[in-house]
Design brief:
AhpD-like; homohexamer; about 130 residues; about 0% strand; mainly alpha; elongated
Chain lengths: ~130, ~130, ~130, ~130, ~130, ~130
């Protein structure tokens, strides 16, 4: 069978369970998202990915809300259905209002448009940006 | 000659000059970026694009800094050299610090990675996100 | 009706049937995948695509397994659901183990991340690579 | 040395030269573009690619001009500098005017924008399109 | 609830209804597509996007059919399911025949292939295109 | 100044130098690539990225050569100039022959083509792959 299958908590090895527990504790949730259950097929990759996500998404010079909106911008540009759904939800949880969402979509759309105009018109970089 | 050529102010038609003047006034700059000079080959498209960018990038529920960082996130994901250069500069001008830039890059990188993991593992969307 | 429709064997023209027969014989399967049934709407394109795929995917300096994993890497990066599903299955058939799949996903994810870091940091190519 | 190197006519094998000759005859040009000279490192791939391009780009239900503009649309969306340059030139040669180019860029930009809005708003396909 | 929801005509504000009415009148349809109903969550963005689409897609140097096929080329390259479905339907309505559709797909496929060959072989732009 | 600047060894902090030393030791090279010198602006990100790359690219169920070719496949599909150059060099170093490179490019090109054909024809996933 070629389709990847998830691993839920009841069947998780101790190392997978440790990651699941860390996710649940940090995010204060009852269960982990499907993403982590599928990644659990590769316990080493699961741990590496989670440790990296935890470090990258922690509050710093940018707020969790801003970070989640950036995540949405990338996911929308890549057309990753799962990631759009999960990170829009995370951004909402971090405080994204309807007005913020509408502006986020507006900027993403405009950037994707002007990116292609710059490509198509073969615009050279201004000396000031070098 | 197939390569698009820019139009500078000295050779701009009144309608193009009006857009250039509006850009310079709003941004308080002496000259417009190459992007606008190339787009000026299509005066109707120039005006439409500028009016849309002006509306989308104006301060609202999201700050100009956040909007510029979202623009960078899209441009980096699309690998638009011109747009990366110009919008990183704009984000700097809007207040992006070195620490913010580093975190922005971190989130963009991580999102591009996990987007593909979600694709490859064919992760179904959690019911909670539907 | 704008949605493309498949052509199955029972309704295939002789030229389409010839391609279907070649696919089935070479792959030792009872029926062709949906991909070929949809492409069959364009018999010339069907034949051209199949002849190219047959040439490209035949054993050579790279093994069929390695070729299928490269196919998966491209399909995951492009987020082509159909192609991820069909080429993951083909890679499994060619011998891809669970451990190989996990490492394949790991490399794909990491490459997508560092591709964007190289873009965002505007890293110039080292002279050694020129 | 890892960087691919071109093969020019003077050093081409008979099989490569045969492809070069066919390109020059069909396009009525004195020399082939760099693309073909680099691909010539793989004579089998060179021949396959040229035969496919020749078939796909020949006049049919769509004119060469329309086909070249579609090629530009894909190349701009993928941000392939080489392909944007060469296929814009080919479209010009096939009759693309300044006004057509401006409209082509406008449609490409708008499509890239609305593609992302459809993604971000998670718009379900209308029953009429199924 | 994080998933965006559509707004149908019965619940639309006057400004949204005005856009819906303009779409229906111009396209001579009874109802607007889902795309517009979802975008209606952002009345300002809805109006801006519609005005831009209306301007870009109106007949000009390029026919509506050619513009719709370019839209399909971008949407297929970006793998936007919604946009592929809706713009293939629009192209059909504008006169795209089965033969045109087959050729359109052929060109899109070939362009995506050669775009990557140009990348991978690191082909420099011919002086003639500069 | 908005353009990112590299950090070379002479000006590296102890934590950056430690990463540089680890890279040089593991790869048995005299100096690190530009990629790492630019990433060094973010010492935490540098360390995280290097640790992840080291883990992902180490020999396992897949050989270093296969992993580097997968890296090239992703980089070519994303059109990351820097990454194409550096990972083609790495693949060469790991044993990629001219014949392997030609086949790698052939598979990448074909996969990018058929990915789009599957999108455009809206091919549903075969039940066997679910």
């Amino acid at each position: 069978m070629s389709k990847p299958q998830p691993i839920d908590e009841a069947h998780a090895s101790p190392e997978v369970r440790a990651v699941f527990d860390d996710i649940k504790a940090l995010r204060n949730v009852e269960d982990v998202n499907n993403f982590w259950k599928y990644l659990a097929r590769d316990p080493v990759g699961l741990k590496r990915t989670w440790e990296s996500v935890k470090q990258v998404m922690s509050p710093g010079a940018l707020s969790p809300l801003v970070k989640e909106m950036i995540y949405v911008a990338v996911s929308v540009t890549n057309n990753c259905d799962y990631c759009i759904a999960s990170h829009t939800a995370a951004a909402r949880k971090a405080g994204m209002t309807d007005a913020m969402f509408a502006e986020l979509m507006g900027v993403i759309g405009m950037a994707n448009e002007t990116n292609r105009l710059a490509n198509g018109y073969r615009v050279p970089i201004d000396p000031a940006f070098e």
